[in-house]
Amino acid sequence: MDIMINFNSYFLMNAEEVIPYVKAKTDFFDNEASLSCDEIGDGNLNYVFRVRDEQAGKSLIVKQAGDTARISDEFKLSTNRIRIESNVLRLEGELAPGLVPDVYLYDDVMNCCVMEDLSDHTILRTALNEGRIFPKLADDLTTFMVNTLLLTSDVVMEHKAKKALVQDYINPELCEISEDLVYSEPFTDHNSRNDLFPSNKDWIEENIYGDDQLRFEAAKLKFAFMTNAQALVHGDLHSGSVFVKEDSTKVIDPEFAFYGPMGYDIGNVIANLMFAWSRAYVTNADEKYSEWLEQTITDSVDLFSEKFLVSWKENVTDIMAKEQGFDRWYLDTVLQDTASVTGMEMIRRIAGLAKVKDLTSIATEEQRVTAERICLTAAKQFVLNAAEYKTGKQFLEVLKNSASSHNMR
Fold it and tell me: What pTM was computed for the model?
């Protein structure tokens, strides 16, 4: 019991044990403060606690990594991911100030990260499912992505320093999850873990599992994901990894971070906005909200491109990267990867293990079937014709054309 009180040896804490931990490891609260603690984690991997001093109006978050995933004991994980998350949040805070939570402590014994509480924000996915509008979202997310991706690449960084970061952020266990859940199982179900909506099962087996060309492209994309150490990507930048309020956007949970293709982050953002749009479409959501979503999808592509080219001119250091036209060529490769990943993310959230509430919480069977088929039909276009999509309008047109082909109105 003394070991537990002193926190000198790792164990998985419960809410009661987190309170003395915070008092022992931080000076965030007054010594005599009366603290409460709740476990609030709803993700697939970690345990998340909110510690409050109600009287002082202060609170913080303690995130602890276990050695298996919460979603399934089949996933055996190194607790090193909490080191990666803590260090990446600090780096992202330097590169994109104000767009990530502050980190107060990283504890390599208890495998904890103690950080800013964002309880005055809402998880973006929840907010989108409620039909809420956030005018700054596309602007903030594109700034975050340009700053964290371009500025950690060989275009900007001294090459040996960049290679040292590649080594520091090798993340094999969590990369393996992505390799399986995004790039393999939605096309083969080789572990029999896929969870298909029964009413769409035959359609998915025919149009996804049964499409040899799609599977061939997925195979190529898997090995690009595994070998293209382009930039320090967040690695899990979906709408469950973003906190929002009217005037603030905060990106959280970069535990999947590693050196990979820039388009992986951008495509995840686009795909998850498209889930929200598909839900809005089949449920006849408020027109103003749907129009904002369409503008946000368009802006997420176009603002990224604009800011990327401006940042390139300001920050490029590599002599060959300054060659005429190289910036535009490089951006085009990033946009091609973005389209591919948009499709892969949309497929894996429907034809794979890990779902999104945007679709699973749709109330009627007919609406959910339609929303899934809209997403999957669009996804196939993004994967099969990725090089064609360079503008936000083109991305949005794929989605809207897919909706028209499954018109239920």
Answer: 0.93
